[in-house]
Amino acid sequence: MALDHYYLLGRSGLRVSRLALGTMNFGTGGFHAAYGKTEEEARPVFRRYIEAGGNLVDTADFYTAGESETILGNLVAEAKARERVVLTTKFTNSVDPGDPNAGGNGRKHMIRAVEASLRRLRTDYIDLFLLHTWDRITPVEEVVRTFDDLTRAGKIRYAGLSDVPAWYAARAQTYAEAHSLVPMVTLQLPYSLLDRSIELEHVAMAGTLGLGLTAWSPLGGGFLTGKYRDTGQGVAGEGRLTGAGSPGQSWTDREWRLLAVLESVAGELGVSMAQVAVNWVATQPGVASAIVGASSVAQLDTSLAALDFELPVDLRARLDEASSVPPPSVYRMFTPAYQSWLVSPGVKVGDKPAEYAPPVRNWAPAGTG
After folding, report:
1. I need a surface site. Which of 68, 289, 319, 329 has the fewest CB within 10 A?
2. What is the pLDDT of residues 263-304, one digit of tens each?
C-alpha cells in the first residue's frame, strides 16, 4: 500500500502520485457539511496518505465553505510537509452570493480567489491552481493571461482546468502556446466505469495537447463500491446516493449489469469492488492520477491497495465491455467499425504503430528526485 511511483503531470516536470487525496470532506460547513469531517478526524487520513508516499492533495475554495483549505493548511504545516506536498486548489464558485464578481472565471475573481486560498492554506504559493468549472461567459483569453500573470508573480506554480468542455480546454492550451503563455498541465474530470463520457473527446484532446488527466469520482459517487443494491422494489444501501431525488432513483439496467460484472471480476481477483474500480481508472491511458477521498484511515488503505495488483487483459476487457455505451450522434462516425466500412474499406489503416509512439506515461522512480 505504498505510493512509490510518480508520473509527470501532462507536459510538465511536476511529479505526482498515482492516487491523489481528495479533501472535499475536510470540514463541516457549507455545501458538503452532510459528510464532512473535523480537523481531528481528517488528521489521521492526511497523515496516512503522506506516510504512504502520496504527494498530490486536492481541495477547492468552495469545499466546506473554505474549511477544507483551512484544515489542509493546518495539517500541512503541522506535518512540516509543505515542500513535499503538491497543493492543488480550485476557483470558480461564488464566495459571496449576490456579488457578480465574487464567482465565475473573470480576472477580478481569479485574483481574489488565489489570495484568499493562500491565506487559508497558510502558504505563499499554490502548486497547482485550477479553474473549477466553465462559467460559459468569461473569455478564455482572460483566464489564460491571468494564469500567466499569477505564475510570473510567484502566486502559483502550474495552471490547469477542471470540468470544462473539450473545445474550451483545447482553445485555452492552443492560445497559451501561440502567445508563449504558461500552459495548462492538467485537466480534472469525472471518470469511472460508470461514466466514460470523457472518452468521446477529452481523453484524445488532453493527450494531444499535453494535459495530464486527473480523474475525480472513480467510484461513481460510491455506486461502484457495491454497497447499493437493486431489490426489485427500490434501492437498498446507506449512503448519499439513496433517498428522494438521488441518482439511485434512476439507475438503469445497464448500470446494475455493470455492477454484477464488477463484482464477478473482484471475486476472481480476491479484492474489493472498489479496488477494481479505482485500479481501472488509474491505469487508463492518459490518466496521471485518480482522486480518492476517505472518511477514515481504513477506507484510505483500501484505496491505496487498489494499486497493488494488475488487471489481467481478459478481465479488463470484460469491464470495458460491460461499461461501454454506444457513441451518440456524430461520434458514431469516428469509430473503427464505421471508418473501416466507409472511410477506408478493404484496407487496414491506423495511426503509427505502438513502437513509433512515445510512451503514454513517463516513470519517475521513487527516490530519484
Report:
1. 329
2. 999 999 999 999 999 999 999 999 999 999 999 999 999 999
- How does pLDDT run across 164-223, given as a tens digit for each residue? 999 999 999 999 999 999 999 999 999 999 999 999 999 999 999 999 999 999 999 999
The CB-based long-range contact list for 112-119 (8 Å cut-off, 24+ gap) reads 113/61, 114/150, 114/155, 114/156, 115/155, 116/61, 116/66, 117/61, 117/69, 117/89, 117/91, 118/155
Q: Which of 6, 7, 49, 63 is catalytic?
A: 63
Q: Which residue type, as a one-letter code, is found at position 122?
A: R
What residues does 88 pair with on adjacent strands? 58, 128
Are 188 and 224 in contact by the 8 Å Cβ rule? The answer is no
Instruction: Give the chain's domains with CATH numbers.
Output: 5-225+273-312 (3.20.20.100)
Show the CA angle centred on residue 200, arms to residues 199 and 201, nearest 5°.
95
pLDDT in tens, 327-361: 999 999 999 899 999 999 999 888 777 677 555 55
Whether the CA torsion 112, 117, 122, 127 is positive or negative: it is negative
- The distance of Cα 264 from the centroid of its chain, to the nearest Å, equals 26
The dihedral built from the CA positions of residue 205, 210, 216 and 219, taken in this order, carries a sign that is: positive
- Please calculate the CA angle 53-292-194 and round it to the nearest 5 degrees: 140
Supply the DSSP symbol for 328. Answer: P
- Among 182-191, 240-249, 319-328, the least confident range: 240-249
Rounded to whole angstroms, the Cα distance separating 51 from 53 reads 5
Angle at 182 between CA 357 and CA 12, to 5 degrees: 40
Asked if residue 156 lies in contact with residue 125, where contact means CB atoms within 8 angstroms, the answer is yes
Q: Which pLDDT tens digit goes with each residue over 67-80?
A: 999 999 999 999 99
Tell me, yes or no, if 6 is annotated catalytic: no
Which of 138, 178, 212, 137 minimizes the C-alpha distance to 146? 138
